[in-house]
Amino acid sequence: MKGFLQSRSLNGGTPVLKEWGITSETGTLREVLVGSIEHFSWRDGNATSRRHMRDGVQFDAAIAKAQYQEMLDVYRQADVNVHILPPQADQPYSIYARDSSVMTPWGPIVCQMYSPWRRAEWVSVLNFYREKEIPIFDVVSAGTFEGGDFMLIEPGAVLCGCSGERTSLAGAEQVKGWFEKEGWEFKIGRFDPHFLHMDVQCVMVADKLAAVCREVLPDDVLIWLKQKNIEFIDVPYKDAMELGCNIVSLGNERVLLPAESKKLKAQCLAHGLTVFDPDISMITKGGGGIHCMCQPLRRD
């Protein structure tokens, strides 16, 4: 399989990319990949969207598109170069570009999606990397693995969620093996599928600072983060289930979060961070937030 689809050195020591790649979730964001909103609409594949659809909330495509543009404007204001995947009518959730691939210091990993109606997304993302001549680190082939469960907490340390659905233990263990060959620590946190992805419960805000829903984040993950001297900003359960924890660090003490995350915004400001808070509520009601839409391609 060696070649474009597997640039990984099987015994470790894979060369770090020079023009692409990330080593953490908090370095200064320079390049980002997002999906198109053109064909986005809510689907009942997660608890958040099902709840809003059950309650009679109506999806408004015009509002969603306006909110999406507001988010893109923030990235551009923050000097981030935005890449947008081409729209595909059969991929209504490809707006959540975080899930179909993840970036590493050595190139992207192409994921294996859980939901049947999202599995074609790997084709679009693979074509993007081919066009940009970004070598693929590897492709997940054992079980499922989605990018919303994957985060580089800091250089040398990965946190990977595993619900058994969006990311299976087989998928997580396969990627863990790749990282351990490169000398990285790889922590797998197990949780109930109700919480969808790890980035619903925990996301890095800045160096050594994480937004965490302690009510649901597994105890062993909390202990692991504390051992790394990571400070917590508490996010209430209700806020977390509305994607309030699902935010993006822009680096340089800046953070992008949804307007509805008022408590988190106040705490970020108290920590001296600059906050950008566009309203993306018409998008988050579909079950994915700012972090779900952000696939970092390069950070300092």
Describe the protein:
With 300 residues, the protein is of the alpha/beta class. The protein has helices spanning 47-54, 61-77, 121-132, 169-181, 219-227, 237-241, 262-270, 281-284, 290-293, and strands at 29-34, 81-84, 101-104, 107-110, 138-139, 150-154, 157-162, 185-190, 202-206, 209-212, 231-234, 248-251, 254-256, 274-276, 295-299. The protein has one domain (29-299): L-arginine/glycine Amidinotransferase, Chain A, CATH 3.75.10.10. Helices cover 27% and strands 22% of the residues. Strands 2-1-15 form a three-stranded mixed sheet. The longest helix has 17 residues, at 61-77. It is globular. The two termini are 30 Å apart. The relative contact order is 0.19. One of its GO terms (molecular function) is arginine deiminase activity. Pathway: Amino-acid degradation; L-arginine degradation via ADI pathway; carbamoyl phosphate from L-arginine: step 1/2. This is arginine deiminase.
